[in-house]
Amino acid sequence: MTQNKNRQVRNVILETIEKWKGLSVGILCTVVGAVVFALIPPLILAKIVDTITAGQTVAFAGILLYFVMLAVTAFMESAREGLLIVFGQKVTHALRSCLMEKFVHLTADNINKQEPGTVVSRFVGDVDTVENLFTSGIVSMFADVCKIVSILIVIWFQNPGLTAVLILLLPFLFLFTRHVQKNMLTAQIENRRAVGRASGHVPETLHNIRTIHCLAKEDYMEERYDQYIGESYQAMERTNFYDAVYSPVILILNAIVIAIVMLLSASGNPRILTFFGMSAGTAVAVINYISQIFTPVESLGMEIQTIQSAAAGIHRINEFFALDEVTVRNAGKGAAENIAERPFVEFRDVTFGYDSHVVLNHVSFKVMDGDQVTLLGRTGAGKSTILKLLLGLYEPQQGEVMIHGVPAAEIRDTSRRKLFGYVEQSFHLVPGTVRDQITLYDDTISENQVRTAAKLTGLESAIHALEKGYDTQCTPDLFSQGQWQLLSIARAAAAQPELLLLDEITANLDAETEKAILQALKRVAANRTVISISHRTSAEMGRTILIGEDASACES
User: Fold this and answer.
1) Strand-strand pairing, 357-367 and 554-555
2) pTM of the predicted structure, to 2 decimals
3) Is position 181 within any domain?
4) How many structural domains are present in the chain?
5) How many angstroms separate the Cα of 26 from the Cα of each of 33, 80, 508?
6) Could you tell me the mean pLDDT of each successive run of 10 residues in the chain, 556 residues long?
7) CA separation for the pair 420, 411 (Å, rounded)
8) What is the span of the domain harbouring residue 124?
9) Hey, which residues does 507 pair with through a beta bridge?
10) Does residue 299 sit in the same domain as residue 409?
11) CA atoms 18, 22, 25, 31: torsion sign
12) Minimal CA–CA distance to 369: which of 530, 543, 544, 532?
């Protein structure tokens, strides 16, 4: 049974806003405060200049107020940036937690379809774009738009003609900014790709150095590396060109606007002065405002780019959230009820396939309590799939997979480790000590159970020989391949399960190591039901069940 929780990025963001109301209110206050307080210092400065030009003495309180307003404006800007960073980190943490929660509950089919690199990009790149949506995206864009509009309103009351000039000029300035930013972004992406190819070329050359020498391909490899470096330099040159051109253009445009306004205000024509006339103090304020208005216009282009990138990241995350999950198995019977007359495991006319490829076709067999059976069949016949169906990772497309009369997919999560232990072909290391490898951080497994499992598998002496015994931190070189496989068996046996599922656990071992593994299995499997998969007759346990693509399983 599967389910699909209707979770989306916007829900996570709204939940974060609800959880951190004080932080959200603080952001709103600092955004508004930064815009409002930024308008005040030029007006105070205009008053001071007009007072001086009138031959009057400037009050100390006015000068002090000017500097206080500058400090308050700077504080508001810093507080806004700081709060936005904190809020972005809160959203990032919530999103990554939700993604991990989603990932661990995905159906096995959906997990198998996910490319590792794609999944990692969801957790890293896509989530980072959502964080940027707040730190340098939608909130910053809102603040910059408010700043531009408020400056235009203030200038309108000071110099209506200048406001008209700016309204006509700003769209062209914005389009020029976007053009430069798009070309810079394209060049930066090309540079990163070229650097990536150059960086990958070095280990590729090192890995194949003997072949390169044998085939005399040294010049070819050098030419390829030079080509990658050349592409990187060309991309960087384009980036540097646009970067070098943009700032002078903005400064020149700024100077031209100021010069035009100053000339018009000094023209002496009454009609022109109606729109452009102003006092010396107002001129100082206007020059200050003009300088302020170019910066948010420049920022708007990058903020729009950030929002576009975030929109793509949000879409990819929402696609991930939309994948089907396994149903939480909390209700229903536990499978620990052992009814003597009922088979321990029963496949009833089971058909299952991956996409359109049918692997199991009308398979039926029974395994009674205490049976030890081996599944035999060609590669691809579906032997490992049978174990996955028993583990509840998949559900049959037709038929039923029963454990003690309960559908395998409906067994309680809390009962599963007590019910069966699963041993794969290779050991999967988890961070932690030797004890952690056996318990998998399950507090219900006692120290006595850990030591008993190690003793049954024959690992007890090897563990005692370690400096810290069971408290030794595990690294890949701590044990031999055979010892890791024994540790995998100890992990499966620690919870004292009723059923052992063994998936070709001796396939990659030499004969001597295989013998040690089989002896350990014999001790662990005593008085337990066992279903194993093996390609070697020496590893067969009990009776065999032949698995093929035609009709039912055959027992022998």
Assistant:
1) unpaired
2) 0.63
3) no
4) 2
5) 10, 8, 61
6) 66 89 90 89 87 83 89 91 88 88 78 71 80 79 85 83 80 80 77 78 85 87 89 85 78 78 72 71 81 77 73 82 70 45 85 84 88 84 87 87 86 81 86 91 90 90 90 90 88 89 78 82 86 67 70 48
7) 11
8) 2-159+278-325
9) none
10) no
11) negative
12) 530
Interatomic CA distance for residues 519 and 186, integer angstroms: 63
Sort 234 into a burial class: Cβ within 10 Å, 0-12 / 13-18 / 19+: middle
Contact 470, 433 (CB under 8 A): yes
Question: Which single residue is written with the structure tokens 């497994």?
Answer: 445
Cα(29)–Cα(144) distance, rounded to whole angstroms?
Answer: 15
Whether residue 385 is found in the same domain as residue 532: yes
Q: Annotate 127-178 with three-state secondary structure.
A: HHHHHHHHHCCHHHHHHHHHHHHHHHHHHHHHCHHHHHHHHHHHHHHHHHHH
Quote the CA–CA distance of 369 and 340 in Å, as a whole number: 8
Burial 140-176, CB ≥16 within 10 A → b, else e: bbebbebbbebbbebbeebbebbbebbeebbeebbeb
Record the tokens describing residue 529, joined without a space: 């039901």
Question: What is the chain's length?
Answer: 556
Rounded Cα–Cα distance for residues 82 and 87 (Å): 9
Retrieve residue 492's tokens: 């499966």
Residue 433: predicted pLDDT: 93
CATH no. for residue 90?
Answer: 1.20.1560.10
Task: Provide the pairing of β-strand 345-354 with 398-403.
Answer: antiparallel
Reference 414, options 525, 491, 324, 328; nearest CA is 328
CA distance 515 to 522: 11
* pLDDT for position 25: 92
Could you give the CA distance from residue 47 to residue 50 in angstroms, rounded to a whole number? 5
At 124, list the tokens.
């890293």
Query: Distances in Å between the alpha carbon of 472 and those of 150, 430, 456?
Result: 65, 13, 20
Q: Copy the structure tokens of residue 264.
A: 């018009």
Residue 282 near residue 155 (C-beta atoms within 8 A):
no
Token code pair at residue 153: 């309103």
DSSP state of 124: I
d(CA 455, CA 225): 56
What is the torsion angle, in degrees rounded to the nearest 10, for the CA atoms of residue 44, residue 45, residue 49 and residue 51?
20
Using the structure block, give the residue that is written with the tokens 């590792």. 116
3-class secondary-structure state, position 330: coil
CB contact at 8 A, 500 and 457: no
Type of residue at 426: S
Q: Which pLDDT score is estimated for 334?
A: 45
Per-residue b or e along 57-93, where b marks 16 or more CB atoms closer than 10 Å to that residue's CB: eeeeeeeebbeebbebbeebbebbeebbebbbebbbe
CATH of the domain at 476: 3.40.50.300
3-state SS class at 468: coil
Structure tokens at 143: 């603040």
Query: Which segments within 332-433 are labelled E, that is strand?
Result: 345-354, 357-367, 372-376, 398-403, 406-407, 420-423
Name the token pair of 361.
Answer: 């076709």
Same domain? For 313 and 443 the reply is no
Whole-angstrom Cα distance, residue 357 to residue 397? 12
- Contact (CB, 8 A) for 359 and 437: no
Residue 96 domain-assigned? yes
